[in-house]
Amino acid sequence: MTLAEGIAALGLALPTGAEEKLSAYLALVAKWNKVHNLTAIRAPEAMVTQHLLDSLAVLPILRKSALAGRQYTLADVGSGAGLPGLVLAIAQPDWRVTSIEAAGKKAAFQRQAKIELGLTNVSIYCGRVEDCQERFEGVIARAFASLGDFVRLAGHLSDRLWAMKGAYPADEIAAVPSGWRVVASHALRVPGLDAQRCLLQLEREH
Fold it and tell me: How many domains does the chain have?
């Protein structure tokens, strides 16, 4: 499946030039992968599906959460090669996206991608998530940790956390720390991917 077909299948409207930037980003990932092993997925078509489209699948849900007409602040925790953070920043240039990554080589890649792609709405924080002291309207993580660890490590950053998961993780949900609750589970359909995906929405209880 091509990127254009996947974007159409998701029903997404992206800003002018976003599709070209996404392709350029993927080319950068492939280039750096040869030396730095950013991701285990290397086949071009699989990278489109499992990196770009998987990241973009959450966008309609996040857009509903973000207040229209003002800048939404989002952090991506344990972002690796910038997934989904840099992808969302390209698709949503009016948002402020902070990518939090502890591995120096992966953070260095993201800095280079930010420069080459002209991503003025992106900040890169190289360090442990528990050491970051900023506050955001939302925090997202993809294949980062169990829900319990996600809350414990990143809960100080926001009152709303988004966890990208595979199949519905009932055991993890049952172990969410007190003071937090899963308020929604959004089923995700990733074009070209024959696997279960969901986005869990966690909120602090007031």
Answer: 1
Q: What are the percentages of helix, strand and coil residues in the chain, rounded to 5?
A: 40, 20, 35
State CA 192 to chain mean position distance.
19
pLDDT at 47: 94
Domain carrying residue 151: 3-204
56 with 12: CB under 8 angstroms? yes
User: Which residue did the predictor score with more confidence, 179 or 45?
Assistant: 179
Asked if residues 24 and 17 have their Cβ atoms less than 8 Å apart, the reply is no
Q: What is the per-residue DSSP string for 83-123?
A: TTHHHHHHH-TTSEEEEEE--HHHHHHHHHHHHHHT-TTEE
Packing angle of the helix pair 3-10, 18-36 (nearest 10 deg): 120
Segment (H or E) for 160: strand 160-165
Q: pTM of the full predicted structure?
A: 0.96
Report whether 39 contacts 80 (CB < 8 A).
Answer: yes
pLDDT band (50, 70, 90) for residue 36? confident
Structure tokens that stand for 122 in this block: 């992106």
Contact yes or no for 125/103 (Cβ under 8 A): no
Question: What single-letter amino acid sits at 192?
Answer: G
- Cα–Cα distance measured from residue 152 to residue 4, given in angstroms and rounded to the nearest whole number: 38
Q: What is the CATH number of the domain that holds 148?
A: 3.40.50.150
